[in-house]
């Protein structure tokens, strides 16, 4: 009986070792799977959808010289980004031209007493300019040498 107890102990020991090896293998595989899932791929579009995060990212890039340089290089190598930049500069240029045109038009209008008189009269008649404002403007223009005559005040406002 001693031999069978010794054999039984050896079998038990071998079985325990086999179970331990299997458990270690299973735990190792599970650990590897868990650790490999920890490195998630970040969805950049989801980050940029959040306005706070997007603002923080833009500010971080704009305030870091190296990051801004990399960003500008990225823009320059992207055809669509370059087209947008060119469109922006063209639009800005057109706005400047429009501003200059408006300035010139206003200057020319200020030199034309009849046009100014008609515009002031129309604004008064349409209720866009009060009688007091029209009188003050007429006085200012007379002081500047523009003699505007025949401006009749809106009668509706006089009756108020």
From TrEMBL:
Top-level division of the source organism's lineage: Bacteria
Name of this chain's protein: Membrane or secreted protein
Source species taxonomy: Bacteria, Pseudomonadati, Bacteroidota, Flavobacteriia, Flavobacteriales
Organism expressing this protein natively: Algibacter agarivorans
